[in-house]
Write a structure and sequence with these properties.
Elements lengths: L15 H20 L3 E2 L5 E3 H4 L4 H6 L3 E2 L11 H5 L3 H8 L2 E3 L4 H10 L8 E10 L11 E10 L5 H16 L6 E6 H10 L6 H8 L2 H15 L4 H5 L2 H4 L5 H11 L4 H20 L5 E4 L13 E6 L10 E6 L13 E7 H10 L13 E3 L4 H16 L4 E3 L6 H10 L4 E4 L2 H5 L3 E5 L5 E4 L1 H8 L1
Helix pairs in contact: 1-7, 1-15, 7-14, 8-14, 9-10, 13-14
């Protein structure tokens, strides 16, 4: 008995209707990217392992899908590591390539390799799949698309302002009102660590703080203490746990907390600049909020940090995120190139639009007319009309098999095709067609030209 086929956990097949909806989201995102002046690029699905490893932190490295070397990969394996069954040490000798984890690091590699061909500042967008060896759950997959936009070669904070507007423009175009664009700044987080005298534990501190909404204040404090941060140090930033109010009110509290930290004060100034500009320009449907617990991507973000939350009431992780990276290309030998970028989580956006019933009915565009197959001569006669309809922009097709009329009509009903055309000997003799409206049941006898006019 043949084995029942399956697909790997965390991956999915997509039906025609699902692909149409995904394409609708992608097209809306692409349209806005282009309006904002971004240019498209594409990079390979897999990169050299040393391009990716060490760029996402220890947890990120564990989630990178490694590709085994082709051929007898064990022949060149680190024998000592192999005998010790040390999977971490043996990996580099049996796997030289890996599936890309995100689009940002491959983009940095692209910029460095093509620097002599690019005009800076360089604005690029990229819409491609990425892979992560994560535990699959709702809204989290092992294969998923990212839709990224980045600017490299500019330190201007106007870029950060533009990205807030870009998020707003995309979600407005998708009809997804009420998203929250959360923003923080790496310098503010560095300021917290400096104020409590734990600058060397910045990553431990911020990783714990980032979990505030998941494990609560007590849980965060416990994790910090487990990482060697004292209760006295934590007490110095107690007000961070209770930070409430609008953007400006939160900024005032931060100014007081970070009054002794120069780096922290620079972060506050940057956040103020972005907020003031956004308030002046206005947002259509999104909101901007300061979230000091936001600590994503700390291994390469150096300034602004973004994360987008779905509208209130929708249980979903972030549907977008990004930030400023002043030294990302430096890891590939290209120093002093600042960049900032954001990403849209296509799959999660899809789930949110589905949950809120925000996909337009016209998204899953179907065949508009099916021609019934009565035989070889009739089919050739019909295909001339099919060709004319397609040329006029009407989606049309001929049923391929000379099957019973009932079967062909049932096929049209199951595919929800609104019109059926029939042409037998009588219609052919008079150069006519019988057009049937499958929803109303009405029938008309028309010429080919009239058929095109009616269905255009």
């Amino acid at each position: 008995m043949a084995q029942k086929p399956s697909i790997p956990k965390g991956t999915r097949d997509f039906s025609p209707a699902e692909v149409a909806k995904r394409n609708y989201i992608i097209q809306n995102i692409r349209d806005q990217f282009q309006k904002f002046g971004f240019q498209p690029i594409e990079t390979p699905s897999f990169e050299n392992s040393d391009t990716l490893m060490g760029k996402y932190g220890e947890e990120g490295d564990r989630l990178i899908f490694k590709i085994l070397n082709s051929g007898d990969f064990l022949k060149k394996a680190d024998q000592q590591a192999y005998e010790a069954k040390d999977s971490l040490k043996i990996t580099s000798s049996i796997s030289e390539k890996a599936l890309r984890y995100d689009l940002t690091v491959p983009f940095a590699r692209y910029v460095v390799q093509h620097r002599n061909e690019l005009e800076f500042p360089f604005k690029r967008y990229q819409i491609q799949p990425v892979w992560r060896a994560d535990r699959p759950q709702k809204g989290r997959f092992r294969e998923f698309f990212q839709c990224d936009a980045d600017v490299v070669g500019s330190t201007s904070l106007w870029q950060e302002v533009e990205f807030v507007q870009l998020y707003d423009a995309v979600f407005t175009a998708l009809g997804l009102k009420g998203v929250t664009i959360k923003i923080n700044n790496r310098k503010v987080l560095s300021g917290f660590a400096e104020v409590i005298g734990e600058s060397d534990k910045l990553i431990d501190f911020t990783v714990a703080l980032d979990k505030l909404d998941k494990i609560g204040e007590d849980g965060v404090k416990k994790e910090m203490q487990e990482k060697g941060i004292s209760s006295e140090a934590i007490q110095k930033i107690q007000r961070v746990f209770d930070l409430k109010g609008n953007f400006a009110e939160k900024i005032e509290v931060l100014k007081d907390i970070l009054s002794t930290s120069e780096v922290g004060k620079r972060g506050i100034e940057e956040l103020e600049f972005i907020n003031n500009a956004v308030e002046e320009l206005g947002l259509e449907t999104a909101g901007l909020d300061l979230d000091v617990t936001l600590a994503r991507g700390l291994n390469y973000y150096t300034g602004a940090i973004y994360e987008v939350a779905a509208p209130e009431g929708v249980q979903m992780g972030s549907i977008g995120g990004g930030g400023r990276y002043d030294d990302l290309t430096g890891i590939f030998g290209m120093k002093d190139v600042s960049g900032v970028g954001i990403s849209f989580g296509l799959d999660r956006i899809y789930l949110v639009l589905e949950e809120l019933d925000l996909f337009p009915e016209t998204v899953s565009k179907n065949i508009e007319v099916l021609f019934i197959n009565f035989g070889e001569k009739e089919s050739l006669y019909c295909l001339k009309a099919v060709k004319a309809l397609r040329k006029a922009g009407v989606a049309a097709e001929l049923y391929p098999d000379e099957a019973k009329m009932k079967k062909q009509m049932t096929h049209a009903n199951r595919r929800d095709i609104p019109f059926v055309v029939m042409a037998g000997k009588e219609e052919m003799d008079f150069q006519k067609f019988t057009l049937k409206n499958m929803r109303s049941g009405d029938q008309f006898t028309v010429s080919q030209q009239e058929l095109v006019e009616k269905l255009k």
